[in-house]
């Protein structure tokens, strides 16, 4: 049976922006979960934030996609003081490596199977 508690974010009306954060974590875990929860709480307060999807492979690759209405919303999130502090701690403790890609979405659609 599938657990659908982590359904993907619905398609949005383009144009909008995505910030795609891919990472491989280190063995250090102290404080990571609490900080990730706090960041998710804070990003929801950014005007223009649309949602977020997460995925993690058994091998340790994690992908987080943040959806934003415009580039100003991404810039506001990037400059947020607590987010900047979490980024510094992430580089010092939690990540072996990561990449961040920001892109403008010009087409978007979704599909959902009808329920029984």
TrEMBL record:
Residues 15-89 form the ABM domain. It comes from the Bacteria. The keyword Oxidoreductase applies. Keywords: Monooxygenase, Oxidoreductase. GO terms for molecular function: monooxygenase activity. InterPro entries: ABM_dom, Dimeric_a/b-barrel, Jasmonate_Hydroxylase-like. PANTHER family: ABM DOMAIN-CONTAINING PROTEIN (PTHR37811:SF2), BLL5343 PROTEIN (PTHR37811). This is Antibiotic biosynthesis monooxygenase.
């Amino acid at each position: 049976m599938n657990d659908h508690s982590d359904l993907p974010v619905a398609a949005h009306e383009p144009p909008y922006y995505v910030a795609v954060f891919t990472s491989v974590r280190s063995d250090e875990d102290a404080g990571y979960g609490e900080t990730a929860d706090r960041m998710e709480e804070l990003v929801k307060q950014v005007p223009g934030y649309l949602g977020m999807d997460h995925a993690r492979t058994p091998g340790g690759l994690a992908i987080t996609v943040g959806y934003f209405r415009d580039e100003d919303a991404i810039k506001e999130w990037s400059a947020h003081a607590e987010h900047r502090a979490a980024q510094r701690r992430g580089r010092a403790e939690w990540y072996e490596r990561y990449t961040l890609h920001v892109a403008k979405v010009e087409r978007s659609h979704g599909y959902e199977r009808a329920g029984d």
